[in-house]
From TrEMBL:
InterPro entries: Citrate_utilization_prot_B, NarG-like_sf. The keyword Isomerase does not apply. It comes from the Bacteria. This is Tricarballylate utilization 4Fe-4S protein TcuB. It comes from Motiliproteus coralliicola. Keywords: Membrane, Transmembrane, Transmembrane helix. SUPFAM superfamilies: 4Fe-4S ferredoxins, Respiratory nitrate reductase 1 gamma chain. The chain crosses the membrane at residues 117-135, 155-177, 229-250, 265-286, 298-320, 326-347.
Length: 369
């Protein structure tokens, strides 16, 4: 209690609103460290309580561990109107966002997307879809997708569009790993991190009852389940593309494929899961209180969810349009959506999965064994 009073006296001379997110996060986490009421809520608070002071790298690590479940805020006795004015979910969201922007080059692109994400995503889809539609002019519909746009043309377009953003993300992750003091990777650390990510353990709440993301008075696993549907759906869609590529090059089995083939089974099931997951996450985000997240990037985060939904829903529509006059248009819109997702990947919330996995690996390294 004495530690909390000292922090209060020190903070009276400086308005919290004027603090940089890293400074404000440090102030709030030091208060949390003195209180310790939320110790069992998620992996963030045990990590907080291991230290007595926090470097900028420590705070970025904690921010990327946080899943913004908001249970700590609703349980806290020092939130507004208390003079401490704690809002740990919001300040960690601000630091988390800042860490992605500062580490991934060029950072100006990330700031632009999170301010004007919806407009950038829509204009990019329209522009790329129009270009891809024009490329199909005079193509033979009877030969299926590759009759409209050849396999070689798709590879020439999508390989750099996928590869270059991955390079940018890799550069950002390397910078982030150095900032948080990451050590040499071990198999046990990777195993712990991937297990936690697959289960989305922190979205289950400290006691396994779920989180309070969309309703402070009710625990729910809805956000966890929608996240899992989105993740599994995306991986299945990616797997469908990978399997089709192997079938094309190694087995000399070019598309189109039947509904019973692995690419179609993976693609359709993945598209359904991805559509359901992103639609559910969007609905929950509309219900949730915005002041408990980084309000500056709300539009960009919704644009990212919408972009994933556009990729999955247009993919399903493309399957349904096979053999119809709508095939050319749907192929252009779907490929335009996928191309937009790839190009904007380093600057959208898509990077949160990479940074959170890195944070989970670092947490595994820091845990006593």
């Amino acid at each position: 209690m004495q530690a909390i009073e000292l922090i209060n006296l020190e903070s009276e001379s400086s308005p919290f609103q004027a603090l940089d997110p890293l400074q404000d996060a440090r102030r709030q986490l030091e208060i949390c460290n003195a209180c310790r009421y939320c110790e069992g809520y998620c992996s963030v608070f045990p990590a907080v309580h291991r230290a007595r002071s926090f470097s900028d790298g420590d705070i970025q690590q904690l921010a990327n561990l946080c899943h913004n479940c908001r249970g700590c805020y609703y349980a806290c006795q020092y939130t507004e109107p208390h003079e401490f004015d704690l809002n740990v979910p919001r300040v960690l969201a601000e630091v988390r966002q800042q860490s992605w922007q500062d580490h991934t080059p060029p950072s100006v692109m990330a700031r632009a997307f999170h301010r004007h994400g919806s407009a950038i995503a829509v204009l990019s889809i329209v522009a790329m879809a129009l270009l891809l539609w024009l490329m199909q002019t005079g193509a033979d519909h009877a030969e299926g997708f590759y009759g409209l746009l050849s396999h070689n043309a798709m590879v020439a377009i999508f390989l750099p569009a996928f590869g270059l953003p991955l390079v940018a993300i890799g550069i950002g992750l390397r910078r982030y790993w150095r900032t948080i003091g990451g050590e040499k990777l071990r198999l046990s650390h990777l195993k712990d991190a991937f297990a936690s990510a697959a289960q989305m353990k922190n979205l289950a709440g400290g006691h396994g009852d779920g989180c309070n993301f969309e309703d402070k008075d009710r625990f729910s696993h809805a956000r966890r389940h929608f996240h899992q549907a989105t993740m599994i759906g995306f991986l299945l869609c990616f797997g469908a593309t990978g399997i089709a590529t192997l079938m094309h090059y190694l087995l000399n089995l070019p598309a189109p494929y039947s509904l019973a083939s692995l690419p179609k089974l993976f693609g359709i099931s993945g598209g359904v899961l991805l559509s359901v997951g992103t639609l559910g996450l969007g609905v929950l985000k509309l219900k949730a209180e915005r002041h408990l997240a980084d309000a500056r990037v709300w539009g960009g985060e919704m644009a990212f969810i919408g972009l994933l939904f556009a990729v999955s829903s247009t993919g399903l529509a493309l399957v349904a349009a096979a053999g119809t006059d709508w095939l050319t248009l749907m192929l252009a819109i779907h490929l335009g959506s996928v191309l937009t997702l790839f190009v904007l990947m380093p600057f959208s919330k898509m990077v949160h999965g990479f940074y959170r996995l890195a944070a989970l690996i670092r947490e595994a390294q820091l845990k006593p064994h």
